[in-house]
């Protein structure tokens, strides 16, 4: 169909639209923009227009991304890593979920109670991608063999889901952390008083890890450490933690440390070890009996745990070389003050202190004198009693003769 040209005197009708009229091109030069343009600007400003420098910087960025990820430049796995899975782990029974190590199931054995929410989420995602039933069913190798692994009894996947459920619930995670299998293995690794009699181990390396381990259960945070704080959080080279500390700082820290631990407020609980009500039992008496027994057992375990921590603190205090050092310094300060007072008053300064042998001799002499005085008093009392007894006999004899 032919289209006739518009007449030479044609003019378009005026627009009645309320829309913004077309913006005319502004005066000046338009600059192109986009990824290529920004890459060009980066090349000029950061690498002086040198493509070799650009290639070197790009390679370095890829190496950093690979170091933070899994080697393919992927995102950082937050330190979760990839723990091995042995046959014993993969054959766990989901019905026995209370006996399983939930951190081990999610591959967090190296982090355990220090794992944060992001790390737990990352670990769970890794395990799900590896062990999800649908993932196994879509495996080309499995499909080629004609196997059907997409079943509802995928035991380990259920264990993964249960571990994630427990560790993402703050209350249930605390209950599990209270009886963490790793902690229970270490809890008995505590020296006894007899270990410090013959060949005592170094003080600071022995007790510092123990208190660090117990501090996770404290309601009050932060928990004071056994060692006196140093500038830059440097570790002490002195196993007794005495050198390189001024006396007031050392004394204040030691007193605050033992004051904290003798008033230790622990959130550790033992609900995780509660016995379940017998399955199929609808008896209220059975439920009440089980609840009552669980409550009693929790109280007993809590009491034993408090006594255990108190025993550690008592042992640490009894062998703490800093306590002996503090007592010695305080004694020297008292003697120096006494000597200064005597000198200021014009009286001759008293000797710094008698020898231990002289003190023992004076003490023994004083005890002997007291013993002798008591013996004399006893003899005098006995003699008076005998005299009174003889007088009573003589009086009775006279009365009998008169009759």
TrEMBL record:
Which residues lie in Basic and acidic residues bias regions? 228-243, 355-379
Q: What is this protein called?
A: DnaJ-domain-containing protein
This protein's superkingdom?
Answer: Eukaryota
User: What SMART domains does its record include?
Assistant: DnaJ (SM00271)
GO CC, one annotated term: cytosol
Q: Can you supply a Gene Ontology BP term from the record?
A: regulation of translational fidelity
The UniProt annotation puts the region (Disordered) at 64-85, 216-243, 279-302, 334-403
Where the record annotates domain J, the positions are 101-180
Q: Which Gene3D superfamilies match?
A: DnaJ domain
Compositionally biased residues, Acidic residues: 73-85
Q: Which PANTHER family match?
A: DNAJ HOMOLOG SUBFAMILY C MEMBER 2
Task: Give residue spans, biased composition: Low complexity.
Answer: 342-353
Organism field: Mycena belliarum
- Which InterPro entries does the entry mention? DnaJ_domain, DnaJ_domain_CS, J_dom_sf, ZUO1-like_ZHD, Zuotin/DnaJC2
Annotated GO MF terms: Hsp70 protein binding; ribosome binding
């Amino acid at each position: 169909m032919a289209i006739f040209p518009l007449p030479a005197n044609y003019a378009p009708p005026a627009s009645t639209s309320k829309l913004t009229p077309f913006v005319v091109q502004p005066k000046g030069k338009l600059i192109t923009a986009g990824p290529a343009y920004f890459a060009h600007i980066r090349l000029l400003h950061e690498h002086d227009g040198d493509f070799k420098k650009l290639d070197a910087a790009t390679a370095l960025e890829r190496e950093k991304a690979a170091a933070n990820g899994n080697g393919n430049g992927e995102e950082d796995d937050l330190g979760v890593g990839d723990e091995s899975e042995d046959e014993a782990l993969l054959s766990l029974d989901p019905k026995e979920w209370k006996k399983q190590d939930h951190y081990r199931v999610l591959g967090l054995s190296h982090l355990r109670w220090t794992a944060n929410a992001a790390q737990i989420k990352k670990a769970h995602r890794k395990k799900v991608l590896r062990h999800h039933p649908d993932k196994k069913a879509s495996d080309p190798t499995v499909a080629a063999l004609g196997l059907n692994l997409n079943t509802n009894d995928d035991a380990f996947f259920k264990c993964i889901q249960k571990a994630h459920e427990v560790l993402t619930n703050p209350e249930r995670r605390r209950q599990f952390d209270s009886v963490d299998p790793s902690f229970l293995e270490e809890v008995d690794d505590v020296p006894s008083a007899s270990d410090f009699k013959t060949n005592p181990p170094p003080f600071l390396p022995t007790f510092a890890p123990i208190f660090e381990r117990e501090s996770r259960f404290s309601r009050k945070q932060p928990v004071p450490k056994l060692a006196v704080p140093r500038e830059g959080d440097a570790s002490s080279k002195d196993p007794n933690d005495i050198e390189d500390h001024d006396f007031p700082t050392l004394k204040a820290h030691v007193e605050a440390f033992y004051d904290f631990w003798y008033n230790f407020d622990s959130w550790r609980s033992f609900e995780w070890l509660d016995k379940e009500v017998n399955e199929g039992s609808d008896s209220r008496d059975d439920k009440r009996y089980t609840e009552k027994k669980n409550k009693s057992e929790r109280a007993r375990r809590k009491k034993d745990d408090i006594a255990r921590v108190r025993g550690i603190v008592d042992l640490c205090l009894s062998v703490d070389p800093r306590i002996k050092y503090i007592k010695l310094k305080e004694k020297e300060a008292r003697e120096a003050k006494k000597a200064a007072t005597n000198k200021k008053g014009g009286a001759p300064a008293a000797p710094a202190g008698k020898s231990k042998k002289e003190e023992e001799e004076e003490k023994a002499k004083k005890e002997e004198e007291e013993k002798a005085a008591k013996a004399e008093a006893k003899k005098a009392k006995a003699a008076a009693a005998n005299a009174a007894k003889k007088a009573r006999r003589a009086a009775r004899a006279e009365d009998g003769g008169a009759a």
